[in-house]
Design goal:
Strand order of the largest sheet of chain B: 2-1-3-4
Shape of chain A: rod-shaped
Oligomer: heterodimer
Radius of gyration of chain A: 55 Å
Distance between the termini of chain A: 105 Å
Largest interface: A-B, 60 and 52 residues
Strand content of chain B: 15-25%
Number of strands of chain A: 2
Strand order of the largest sheet of chain A: 1-2
Distance between the termini of chain B: 28 Å
Structural class of chain B: alpha/beta
Helix content of chain B: 25-40%
């Protein structure tokens, strides 16, 4: 028997158990295959969305930089001031889980809090309005970036899950199912062998019984013929004695004669 | 797959040139925490590759950062580290800068996509 198989006792119960296992493995295999296909379709949709979104993002960021350049033109360089006044983030992201065909994917959502007094002093001299406009443009841009990031995380996680599922499908198809099939054929062959041995034993015993019966019969017949032969002998010799000495048939066994004739003087 | 909700990841980190960082800070993503760690790094002509790599690695290890934004031309400098990066959190997003428009051929994430589909 080629290939690996499980080490089980070749009994009929184990055969049923193993057959059930085979059924289970086949169902599992087809289910996993379907899951993998569904995930791959979803995956392609996300990839397409990501490609589009990235191109759009390029344009949006370009707009935002123009806006910033305008500010620099009007107000002068505000970068140092902005960097120094950045203390606590007002633009944060919240995470929530989405269920996509059985996989929990995280999604980010932008949470913009009121800026408080963060940039109050920036642009106090001039161009304050332009700075506010630029802020709005950049907030919009970052919101778009957050959406893109969500798509990207979904992409990475789906990628992992699809690889995992495909690995499982292959494992079942090429390792588990052949093993179980080998076990089943092993059990079947062992059971057949046991049956054959049983059959052979039965036939042998039958043969021996017949022989014994035939022998016994022969013994009986032989004994019967012997007894008959002896009885015939003794009857014949008794008849010859009564008719005198004349006509002796064969030799006389004096010792076996029962009736001696009287001696008359 | 872990079912841990990433409620603690709220910040957006950024590694970029001066203009990009200024714009992003204006939007309000800037944060300096109690240990004086900022979640942004301004890269100029004097910044070395090690510094950029170190900043990226430290951002990716922090538990409170959800997204890392990085200019594409800076991403080129640390392309090796980025290609190795396979974690789902924090997400790494490559953005264009004023002088370098977005080039989809260089994006690490899209490269992995192409690996999968051979498109």
């Amino acid at each position: 028997m080629s290939g690996a198989r499980d080490n089980v006792f070749p009994t009929r119960m184990n055969l049923t158990v193993t057959k059930t296992r085979l059924k289970g493995a086949q169902t599992g295999h087809s289910l996993l295959k379907r899951k993998s296909e569904a995930l791959t379709t979803r995956f392609r949709v996300i990839v397409r969305k990501i490609e589009d979104a990235k191109l759009k993002m390029g344009k949006v960021m370009q707009n935002a930089s123009f806006s910033l350049a305008e500010v620099a033109y009007i107000t002068g360089d505000i970068s140092y001031q902005v960097r120094e006044s950045a203390k606590s983030a007002t633009f944060k992201v919240g995470a929530k889980q989405e269920n996509v065909s059985g996989v929990m994917l995280p999604a980010f959502e932008s949470q913009v809090q009121a800026s408080g007094g963060q940039f109050e002093l920036t642009g106090l001299g001039r161009g304050g309005q332009q700075i506010q406009k630029t802020r709005a443009v950049y907030i919009k841009a970052v919101e778009m970036l957050v959406e893109l990031a969500s798509l990207q995380t979904a992409f990475v996680i789906l990628d992992e899950v699809i690889k995992l599922t495909n690995r499982r499908v292959n494992a079942i198809e090429y390792v588990i199912i052949p093993r179980i099939e080998n076990t089943i054929s092993y059990i079947n062959s062992e059971l057949d062998e046991l049956d054959r041995e049983e059959f052979y034993r039965l036939k042998k015993i039958q043969g021996k019984k017949k022989e014994r019966a035939a022998n016994a019969q022969r013994e009986l017949e032989r004994k019967a013929t012997e007894k008959l032969a002896v009885a015939d002998d003794s009857n014949d010799d008794g008849g010859n004695d009564n008719h005198g000495a004349a006509g002796s048939s064969g030799t006389r066994n004096i010792l076996s004669e029962q009736n001696d004739s009287d001696i008359i003087f | 797959m872990s079912q841990v909700t990433h409620k603690s990841r709220t910040l957006i980190a950024a590694i970029g040139d001066e203009d990009t960082i200024t714009g992003l800070l204006l939007a309000g993503i800037g944060d300096v925490d109690a240990h004086q760690r900022a979640n942004f790094l301004v890269v100029d002509a004097k910044t070395t590759q090690e510094q950029i790599e170190e900043a990226f690695t430290s951002f990716s290890r922090r538990k409170d950062i959800a997204i890392i934004l990085i200019n594409q031309h800076i991403a080129e400098d640390i392309r090796g580290v980025l290609d190795e990066y396979k974690a789902a959190f924090p997400t790494v997003l490559e953005i264009p800068s004023k002088d370098h428009p977005y080039d989809p051929l260089k994006d690490s994430v899209l490269k992995r996509v192409q690996l999968l589909f051979g498109e």
